[in-house]
UniProtKB/TrEMBL annotation:
Source species, domain of life: Bacteria
Catalytic activity field: N-terminal L-alanyl-[ribosomal protein bS18] + acetyl-CoA = N-terminal N(alpha)-acetyl-L-alanyl-[ribosomal protein bS18] + CoA + H(+)
Function summary: Acetylates the N-terminal alanine of ribosomal protein bS18.
Stored Pfam families: Acetyltransf_1
Record's protein name: [Ribosomal protein bS18]-alanine N-acetyltransferase
Coiled coil stretches, renumbered: none
Protein EC: 2.3.1.266
Family indicated by similarity: Belongs to the acetyltransferase family. RimI subfamily.
Gene Ontology cellular component list: cytoplasm
N-acetyltransferase domain location: 1-150
Amino acid sequence: MRTLSDFDAPRCAELETQLFPGDDPWPTEAFREAFNQAHTIYIGEDDPETGTLIGYAGIAAMGPADAPEFEIHTIGVDPAYQRRGIGRRLMAELLRIADHYGAPIFLEVRTDNEPAITLYENLGFQRLGVRRNYYQPSGADAYTMKREAKPQP
């Protein structure tokens, strides 16, 4: 696992197009901008044989420094590499970051994305509500989910 850089933005955008074709996948420039924000952390995992980026995830710190909250901006795994634990490893690192600050973490997920919902629930997230027509242009609904803070000793 490693921190992503501007060099990775085109590959992330390519994966977004594959993973979220009916919605508004992030373009290269959106990734570059996100990578360079002071309040965000983007990580990725490479194929150990080819060095190709196969998974990515990003998180942002929100709120005041003395009571932060985190929000997962995006997470994706190359379809050819799914169901191998990559998404779980990426999520574990994002959760570790939030736990370091003793902060809760939020995300949105399509209501029809059962594999992701199952993963998130297994990691301690709970559904808070539904955002109607959240994803565009498809109009798909999203669950808002939250994992409570788990401060580290």
